[in-house]
Amino acid sequence: MTNALPATEIISGQPKAAALLARSAGNEKVAHAYLFRGPDGVGKREAAITFAARLNCAALANGAPCRRCPSCRKFFSGNHPDFIHIEPDGAAIKISQIRELKKTLTFPPFEARHRVALLVDVHTMRREAANSMLKTLEEPPADTILILTGDETGGILPTILSRCQIIPFFALPYDQVAAHLQQEEEISPEEASALAAAAEGSLGRARMLHKSGLLARRRQIVDTILRYPATAPEGVEPLLDLAEESAALKENLPELFDLLRLWLRDLIVTGIGAPATLITSRDLQPSFAEALQRWTLNDLSQRIESLAEAEKQLSRNCNRALVCEVLFFALL
After folding, report:
1. What is the CA radius of gyration of the chain?
2. CA atoms within 13 A on the CB side of 87
3. CATH for 7-168?
4. Residue 298 DSSP code
C-alpha cells in the first residue's frame, strides 16, 4: 500500500504540481529527471527539497515527510550529503559546474535511498553546459534523481525539455502571498496586498520588494512626476535628486523600472475600461484619475517606449544616474 503526498506538503497554492508529485511518489514511479517550471519565487526550490525529503523519509506521516527523522532534518537544514544544490555562478550555470556534478555522480550515494541533485534556474545555462548535461539527464546514475528549475518564458533547450518530466508551477493567489507576508513581517494588510499584486503572485519577489523598499521609491517617483507639469522649472531639482537616489539602487534598479512599467500598463488598462482585477499597482490607484486626465493612451505608450530605452541603456552599462535623469524627465 502506498501513501499519497498531501498537496499542502509540497507548497500551498500549487495544487497541480502537488498532485503530479504525489502521484509520482505514491505510485513509486519516480522519474529520473524533473523540470519544475514557472515564475520565480513561487516555491519551486521549496517543493524540490520537500520532494527529496519525502523520497528518503524514514517515518512518513500520511505520505508526507515527517521532518523529524535524521534524513528529513538533514534535507530541510540543507546539510544532507546526498543533496547536491547548484545555482548559477554569476549570471549562468557554467560548464565547469556541470563537469563537477558529473564527476560527483560517478560515486554512489553516501546514505540516501535517492540522491537528489537540484539545478536552479537552468534557463541561464549556457548551450555548452546544457549539451554536456544531456547524457546525464537521459541516463543518470542509479538511485539519482535530477530536479531542474526554470522560468516559463523560454531559454531552455528543447533537448533538455524532452528529457525531463515537466512539473508546472504558477503565480500564487495574491491573497495567499499577502497572508504569508503578514505572518512573516509586521506590515499592514493594505501594504501586504500592494506587495502581493506588484509581485504578480511571486512570494519571493514580494519579499524582495518589501525588504528593498522599492514600492515606496516608486510612489515617490510617481508623486513627483504628477506634481509638476512638463514645463515647470521647479520640478527639475526634485527629479535630479530622485535620479541620483534611484541610481544608488544598483542591482535593484531594473526592478524599479519594471515596477514603473507595471504602473504605466495599469494606467492603460484602466483607461480602456478593463477589469480592475488586472491592476497590479494597487498602491497607486488613488492617483490613476489624475494621471489619466494628464496623459492620453498614446502618451502612455510613448512613456513605456522611453522606459524600454532606459532599460536598454542600463544593460549597456551606461551611467545609471544619467539614465534615470533622462527617463524621469521623459515621464513628465
Report:
1. 23
2. 2
3. 3.40.50.300
4. H
